[in-house]
Design goal:
four-stranded mixed β-sheet; binds adenosine-5'-triphosphate; transferase; single chain; binds 1,5-di-O-phosphono-alpha-D-ribofuranose; ATP-binding; EC 2.7.4.23; five-stranded parallel β-sheet; Rossmann fold; alpha/beta
Length: 209
């Protein structure tokens, strides 16, 4: 999209939250199982055109295993961010993360958009979108430690830093669902599916044609 079109859309949006659909933010501590549960529901919603899964942009090479995302070098990410390429962006673990601005279009037409986000961006999300569901995935601390060590994506020092990262915000509010993923992925995954089906039922696709 042309930069001028992006700026025009942003100016139109200021003070007016993006309506109709629902932004489903999947949050929780590292190792809780956000990507695992997103993959679980994604496999079961392939026929549902109303649910989209945001493809994140991260300044990390994709390992192809835990999450399929786009990669940008740090300077390119900063340029993209400045040109309005992201609906939302944040920094964590020494990395930059962005959610493409195109999710606004999906939500405007009444779709449900699912994205793994930082707990720290929930206030910004609630300001940007009229309908936000916050799906907070949890697991016991010892479970997180075991899973991150077994995943093997980070060094031992990085794993310890991730475990030490505490939730910066109180996430409670409308549309907040807490899902414990200390058991099997199926148990938590079915609860997550139920939240998504409620979000689809809630999204407003009437009057959009
Ligand atoms: N219910 C579960 N039972 C057993 N292992 C699980 C379960 N859920 C996730 N895992 C495993 O735990 C590890 C962490 O899961 P995942 O990468 O989905 O977490 P995450 O919350 O996305 O973490 P991060 O924020 O670090 O990306 C993975 O190796 C995954 O296979
Ligand atoms: O701790 P907070 O800010 O909630 O989450 C920060 C980030 O940590 C994880 O990153 P990754 O997917 O493991 O790289 C999450 O996906 C989120 O984007």
């Amino acid at each position: 999209m042309m930069v001028s079109a992006l700026i025009e859309r942003e100016l139109t949006r200021v003070g007016a939250p993006v309506r109709n659909g629902v932004f489903v933010a999947v949050v929780g501590p590292s190792g809780a199982g956000k990507d695992t549960l997103i993959a679980y529901v994604r496999e079961r919603l392939t026929d549902d055109d109303h649910v989209e899964f945001a493809r994140r942009v991260i300044t990390r090479n994709s390992d192809g295993a835990t999450e399929d995302h786009d990669t940008l070098a740090d300077a390119a990410f900063v340029d993209a961010e400045a040109s309005g390429a992201f609906a939302l962006s944040w920094e964590a673990h020494g990395l930059r993360y962005g959610i493409p601005a195109s999710v606004d279009d999906a939500i405007s037409v009444g779709h449900v958009v699912v994205a793994n986000t930082s707990r720290g961006v929930i206030p910004a999300l609630r300001a940007r979108y009229a309908h936000v569901a916050v799906v907070e995935i949890t697991a016991a601390p010892e479970v997180l430690a075991t899973r991150l060590a077994a995943r093997g994506r980070e060094s031992r020092g990085e794993v310890l830093a991730r475990l030490a990262r505490t939730a910066p915000h109180d996430l409670s509010g409308p549309g907040h669902a807490l899902i414990d993923n200390s058991g099997t992925p199926e148990i938590a995954g079915e609860k997550f599916l139920a939240v998504l089906r409620r979000s689809v039922a809630y999204s407003d696709v009437s009057g959009l044609v």
